[in-house]
Amino acid sequence: MLKVIANATNKGGEGKTTVSILLSEYAALVMKKRVLAIDLDPQANFSKYYLNLEYDPATNGGKIPPIHHDHNAEEDPGDGRSSIADIFYGGQGVTPYPSFFENIEILPAHSQRLQDAEAVTKQDVVEKVHLRLKEFISLDEVKQNYDLIIIDTPPSKGPLTIAGIKACSHMVIPSQMEEDSIDGIYGMLQLWKQESYIRTPDDPITLVGILANRVRNVSLHESFFEQLSKIDSTKDFIISHKIKERVIYGELRVKEDRPKSVFELAVDHPARVECSVACKEIMDRIFQNG
Ligand SMILES: Nc1ncnc2c1ncn2[C@@H]1O[C@H](COP(=O)(O)OP(=O)(O)OP(=O)(O)O)[C@@H](O)[C@H]1O
Ligand SMILES: [Mg+2]
After folding, report:
1. Which of 54, 74, 115, 187 is the most exposed place for a label (fewest CB within 10 A)?
2. Could you tell me the distance, in angstroms and rounded to a whole number, from the CA of residue 125 to the centre of ligand 2?
3. What are the boundaries of each domain within the chain?
4. Which CATH superfamily groups domain 3-289?
5. Which of 11, 245, 249, 279 to mutate to test the pocket of ligand 1 (most atoms within 8 A of CB)?
6. For ligand 1, is residue 10 a contact (CB within 6 Å)?
7. Three-class SS of residue 27?
8. pTM higher than 0.90 for the full model?
9. pLDDT tens across 165-213, in order?
10. Four-residue CA torsion sign, 120, 191, 286, 210
11. What is the Cα–Cα distance from 254 to 23, expressed in whole angstroms?
């Protein structure tokens, strides 16, 4: 059955995009699953990593997907660019792009269109944004073409993050082991609980894990991790393997000809080793426990 992971936390810079990349590549390169990467963040960092985006001439610094290689200008009067944002505007089909990696396809962000979706009025938000991604993911074509969908969300609790949470079967909360970051975890636990109350037994939302990211060998980080591993509200969710603070994660995000995956580093590279065990722990929870 298709699994859908949303990486979410309203706090910025915790590692949502990094973890979205790690899980996509672990699933595609190591587990050989067919992965669809979906970028709901107007910052477009997840898309930018897998695809050469273009600057939007209409906005200051916004990103747009390139013209799709399958676009036929004679048959389709549209602009030939396909973004996940299109699902919030009705009518248009969306066409994923191949990425630099075999087995990973990407539905990229469109900065302005996603920002507009995030700003939809309260009366319209459920109908126009919250439910749209779930509807898209439920299409037979999507279910048949992929084993796993990875959704990256913006740093907010806004409509796009809610759409991601409503569409997912599994939620991952990446977090630094710092005071403000831990507050973000509680905010997300609340959203997960609210969503789980309204799910049906055949369509549960499982919180797979809180993944400690950018961990340094300092007592502050260790003590937050220990605390989360003990207290009732989080102990079942904490992923026992942590991702440390390492320069290589930033370096891997700067692509040259094409990005290099952490799973293409030497097998004994410490980053590859820690990512392999952390991603395995998450994927085992998802694929073995349902
Ligand atoms: N374990 C790590 N070690 C070192 N740098 C990291 C690590 N994890 C993430 N970073 C860096 O920290 C920055 C923020 O990470 P990332 O983009 O994954 O966070 P985010 O939660 O997606 O941010 P945003 O909320 O802006 O979308 C990036 O520059 C990334 O390269
Ligand atoms: Mg991000």
Report:
1. 74
2. 22
3. 3-289
4. P-loop containing nucleotide triphosphate hydrolases (3.40.50.300)
5. 249
6. no
7. helix
8. yes
9. 999 999 999 999 999 999 999 999 999 999 999 999 999 999 999 999 9
10. positive
11. 18
